[in-house]
């Protein structure tokens, strides 16, 4: 791993005089050249929900780099209120973690209305390490009309 060290002792001794000797410790330190990368996927990228409710998407973010990194989670392009549960996530090399994204479906939305949001995850160490996913939310209006049927009484 980065920073691992190994010490080797090198000793030189004269073949004609064994008392003529000296040694030195050589220290070798491993240095990993950082490589940055990220991948983001959605458990389900198309969800629907009742108007006036919140739909929650679960995203899986994987640090595909070889060093620990912190990633910013940014939403864009949406009209409905949308926010990630956290603004950033720190992950070890080759590790993954989940982030929830909340989409509030307005009470004024009509049945079948949709909103699309792009969630972009970018390394704080290298802007080139970025990935995104598009989430589409559909509003559903359930008919809440209550019908009461009364018996019909006919007069003879």
Model description:
With 156 residues, the chain is mostly beta strands. Helix content is 0%, strand content 53%. A 5-stranded mixed β-sheet has the order 4-11-10-6-8, with no helix packed on it. A hairpin with a 6-residue loop joins strand 10 and strand 11.
- Total DSSP helices: 0
The H/E string reads EEEEEEEEEEE
Q: Rg to the nearest angstrom?
A: 31 Å
Helix content: under 10%
Low-confidence stretches: none
Overall morphology: rod-shaped
Q: What is the element layout, followed by pairings?
A:
Blueprint (H helix, E strand, L loop, with lengths): L4 E9 L7 E9 L8 E5 L3 E5 L3 E10 L5 E8 L5 E3 L3 E4 L4 E9 L9 E10 L6 E11 L16
Parallel strand pairs: 4-11
Antiparallel strand pairs: 1-2, 3-5, 5-9, 6-8, 6-10, 7-9, 10-11
Features:
single chain, 156 residues, mainly beta
Concise summary:
With 156 residues, this protein is mostly beta strands. The protein has no helices and eleven strands.
């Amino acid at each position: 791993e980065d920073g691992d060290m190994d010490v080797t002792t090198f000793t030189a001794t004269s073949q004609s005089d064994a008392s003529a000797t000296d040694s030195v410790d050589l220290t070798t330190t491993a240095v990993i050249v950082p490589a940055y990368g990220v991948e983001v996927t959605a458990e389900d990228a198309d969800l629907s929900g009742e108007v006036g409710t919140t739909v929650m998407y679960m995203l899986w973010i994987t640090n595909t780099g070889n060093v620990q990194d912190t990633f910013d989670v940014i939403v864009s392009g949406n009209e409905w209120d949308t926010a990630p549960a956290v603004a950033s996530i720190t992950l070890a090399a080759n590790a993954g973690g989940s982030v929830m994204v909340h989409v509030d479906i307005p009470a004024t939305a009509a049945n079948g209305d949709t909103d699309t949001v792009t969630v972009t995850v970018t390394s704080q160490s290298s802007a080139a390490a970025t990935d995104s996913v598009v989430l589409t939310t559909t509003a559903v209006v359930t008919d809440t009309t209550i019908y009461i049927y009364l018996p019909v009484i006919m007069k003879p």
